[in-house]
Amino acid sequence: MTSDKPAHSWAPPPADASRVGITLETFILEGQLGHPAATGAFTSLLNQIGLAAKLVTAKVRRAGLARLLGYTGQTNVQGELVQKLDEEANETLISVLGRRKHCAAIASEELETERILSTDPRAKYLVVFDPLDGSSNIDCNISIGTIFGVLRKSSTHTVETSDFLRPGRELVAAGYILYGSSTMLIITTGTGGVHGFTYDPTVGEFFLSHENIRIPDRASLYSINEGNSTYWHESVQRWNAWVKEEDKATGRPYGARYVGSLVADAHRTLMKGGIFAYPGDRKSPSGKLRLLYEANPFAFIFEAAGGKASTGRERILDIQPTALHQRVPLALGSIRDVEIFEEFVRSER
Ligand code: AHM
Ligand code: MG
Fold first, then answer.
1. Cα of 133 from ligand 2 centre, angstroms
2. Arch. (CATH architecture) of 24-210
């Protein structure tokens, strides 16, 4: 279908041309994210997200111990109840975002409906998040993450569910924190590039390590839960057979990679290129992943890095949401790899 050669993975810019090594806080304070309407409130909100990331990473790194403590009487050494990590991550984000009164309300995967954090008229932002994505992987010490998106509050009345139901292209920032072999925070405001910060636990700071991440235009990697293949539509089955055919000119067969944590699979795809897909199928017509706090933030990040995000038929960022927890089919990755996936989906017989 194409003869382009797979592009190289992301490589760091030369040290003298970059700001690699500065802290997340300095980066945000200096307006390096390039948000056109940057105000003190926006800067402060992003810094609060950085703080929440540090607090959650501390909990994630002790998850094994916390579980052990939990088994011996359900209270930890401070006499507090040991909560499930996803609840702890959720509570941490809510309490940190509620502190500086810039966040009017949040919507979380862990909560049925939105939660108001501030009725102060100066609270201009809404934050959507999946506090601990891939949490079924905690028990086997596999990478998990936090996904977030920031919207500007569009009305003056008290926030309602409908205030969150806005297409992803209206996000003013999005990012994720990956609790992997190291903790990384990736963030973008859409126009100022996508930047990655690595956490140094010895000093308790995120440092800029991956400046201006660009996803390769294509690569020979695919990521999908192939255990669902019996439920897939025939177009997805044909695409899956195509990536596994031998054809040197198009870099096939592709290598298969699947962690089962969206944050980990998407991060690898952002760094190395290729495609991650969780399509709709006969059993789950809308797939599994959630539009507001999983698909939209990643779509925003991937487009800002030169990649693409699609349902297979339409751009993720153009979907008008109808419910907080709605699911959406998702294909995410290198521009050419997502286009090829779309060509198959649109040829559904
Ligand atoms: P979660 O938000 O409840 O953790 O579920 C979402 C996770 C994603 O991280 C991952 O991409 C997907 O579920 C994996 O699903 P499956 O186990 O069906 O492959
Ligand atoms: Mg999730």
1. 4
2. 2-Layer Sandwich (3.30)
